[in-house]
Design brief:
Blueprint: E1 2-6, H1 15-21, H2 36-49, E2 52-55, H3 65-72, E3 76-79, H4 88-98, E4 104-109, E5 122-124, H5 133-142, H6 148-155
Parallel strand pairs: 1-2, 1-4, 2-3, 4-5
């Protein structure tokens, strides 16, 4: 099974989306304040790779997996545990240890508190802009389901230096 460990703040909402959409969301009922592009790319990532979502965000303490699934319109199958030390990488390692059926995974987060061995599975977003097209392409590649058409298209854009993003 493929899994996406998903953070929310800095991924599905960002400084840019907060500025454009009237502030940061604090509840799932405020979906109009979530970045529609970032959320669309997460949905596309789920469809492209067949992955399921595990919430690793601090939001996991406030909402159920069913509420996340309904709000984000993706299959959310679990949440990482809140550990006493609050180290995201260790919480993800605990989840992986308890769920050996996970064969491939990607971590999407704007923070870097991961374990060294997790960095090959890590897509770091910029909290200013959230989850981008370049992040999506990298996540597809990590999950073993590259979106080759889109990847080739991005490489043809002279304005972007894809080596810095992919």
């Amino acid at each position: 099974m493929k899994v996406i460990f998903l953070d929310i703040d800095g991924v599905l909402n960002s400084r840019s989306s907060a500025k454009a959409l009237g502030g940061y969301p604090h509840k799932l009922s405020q979906m109009s304040k979530f970045d529609k592009v970032a959320l669309g790319l997460i949905r596309k990532l789920v469809k492209q790779t067949g992955a399921k979502v595990v919430i690793s965000s601090t939001w996991r303490s406030t909402f159920t997996t069913e509420e996340f699934s309904k709000a984000f319109k993706v299959p959310v199958i679990g949440k990482t545990v809140n550990s006493a030390h609050g180290h995201r990488g260790e919480e993800i390692a605990e989840y992986l240890s308890a769920n050996p059926e996970v064969t491939d995974y990607v971590i999407i987060d704007d923070d870097i508190d991961m374990l060294e061995e997790q960095f090959k599975n890590f897509v770091r977003t910029n909290y200013l802009v959230g989850f981008t097209l370049f992040n999506y392409v990298k996540a597809c590649r990590i999950l073993g389901s590259p979106d080759e058409e889109l990847e080739n298209h991005l490489k043809s854009w002279e304005i972007f230096s894809t080596k810095d993003h992919l």
